[in-house]
Give the backbone structure.
Amino acid sequence: MDRKERDAKYRAEHKAERNEYNRIYRQKNKEHFRQYARDYAHNQGKAKVLEKRQKNQERMRVDPEYRQKWSSYMQIYNRNRRERFRMRIIQSLGGRCQKCGFNDWRALQIDHTNGGGTKHRKSFSSLEKYYEYILANISSGDYQLLCANCNQIKRYRPH
Ligand SMILES: [Zn+2]
């Protein structure tokens, strides 16, 4: 009997014992197994996304009509995404102008309480990243809502 056969025989004879051992092991390391499954799914998802992106880029390269369609689709997609971000910030900041109470979101602006807003916004590579940062720091007290009028008045410097 060679080693392989011996191992197989051992496994067969101790099947119930081994199953029990594995069951306890899995239970003891539940969180570990769960995390492993999550990571696996996450990486699989990532690979799929990358593959899709590559295919899309290839198609854009060879098909000008598709490129045109795709870029106008992305324009709308990004505009909606920025709008959703803006809505979330507006909601989190109370939904109305801090000076006068005006509450039509179309004319509400995110004001840096201590100034420097334009410079801060320009330090981000995209508006989305800027919005993400503000959302993450929404309760810092650095941001408030002002309506366009109150914001303009705050900015006004006498000549
Ligand atoms: Zn106002």
Q: What stands out?
A: The longest strand covers residues 108-112. Residues 97, 99-100, 102, 146-147, 149-150 surround zinc ion (CB under 6 Å). Residues 85-159 form one domain. The chain has two domains: 1-62, 85-159.
